Amino acid sequence: MKLLFILLFSIASAVSSYAQNFELAYAKDPLVKITKSGPYIGFQYGKYKNLELGYELQRKAVKLIKPTTHALNIGLDFNFIESVMGLNLGYYQKKGRLNFTYGFALLYRTDFKESRIGISPKVGYKLYGFHLQGGINLLTPNKDFTNNNLFYASLKFVIIKNRDYKWRKREN
Predict the structure, then answer these.
(1) How confident is the model at residue 41, as a pLDDT?
(2) 73, 57 Cβ separation under 8 angstroms
(3) How far, in whole angstroms, is CA 76 from its chain's centroid?
(4) Rounded to whole angstroms, how far apart are CA atoms 148 and 151?
(5) Of 39, 50, 64, 152, which is the most buried if we count CB atoms within 10 A?
(6) Coil, strand or helix at 59
(7) How many H-runs (helices) and E-runs (strands) does the chain carry?
(8) CA gap 106, 55 in Å, rounded
(9) Which pLDDT value is given to residue 24?
(10) Contact present, 55 and 72 (Cβ < 8 Å)
């Protein structure tokens, strides 16, 4: 259990330090680099229904062919009926305008008596501020704490509060 926690903590540290100043790798310079961030609200549907609240940072490289988006998010989810709370640290990537998003999240779940940690691979589709994702929660085993979603679908809406544009410099 300690080894798994140390491993997940190391991955979370690497992802969060990468988020401090991550630059997208480009084959060619993009026309525009866009940074957007803001809070999100969402609903997770599976065996149990959860309300999700959090914050997301998106970096997008706008190109004529295959724009690339990278996003980091941190959030809480609540299941008021089962008294379960969770913390998520996630990442996803989208290549192209109409393609799927692929990502994962590091998870911490508690029922205020016991806790579980794990990882959740996800596949989704993003259109405007809405992000529909499907995934599976792979959590540490616990016989007493089983009121978590294994498979789920999640719909989030990001409210963009901050935008920053960086245009490609012209060479004369």
Answers:
(1) 98
(2) yes
(3) 11
(4) 9
(5) 50
(6) strand
(7) 1, 10
(8) 15
(9) 45
(10) no
pLDDT at 165: 84
Q: Tell me 1's DSSP state.
A: -
Average confidence score pLDDT of the chain: 86
- In the block, tokens 């480009």 appear at 26
Instruction: List Cβ neighbours of 128 (8 Å cut-off, separation of 6 or more).
Output: none
Residue with tokens 């704490």: 145
Instruction: For residue range 13-56, list pLDDT tens digits in order.
Output: 655 555 544 444 444 566 788 999 999 999 999 999 999 999 99
Distance from C-alpha of 103 to C-alpha of 121, rounded to nearest angstrom: 6
Residue 10 has pLDDT above 70, yes or no: no
Backbone angles phi and psi of 84, in degrees to 5: -120, 135
The secondary structure element, H or E, covering residue 14 is: helix 2-20
- 74 by Cβ neighbours in 10 Å (0-12 / 13-18 / 19+) ranks as middle
Query: Which residues share a beta bridge with 66?
Result: none
Whether the per-residue pLDDT at 156 is higher than 70: the answer is: yes
Q: For residues 125 and 155, what is the distance between their CA atoms, to the nearest angstrom?
A: 10
> Rounded to whole angstroms, how far apart are CA atoms 85 and 91?
20
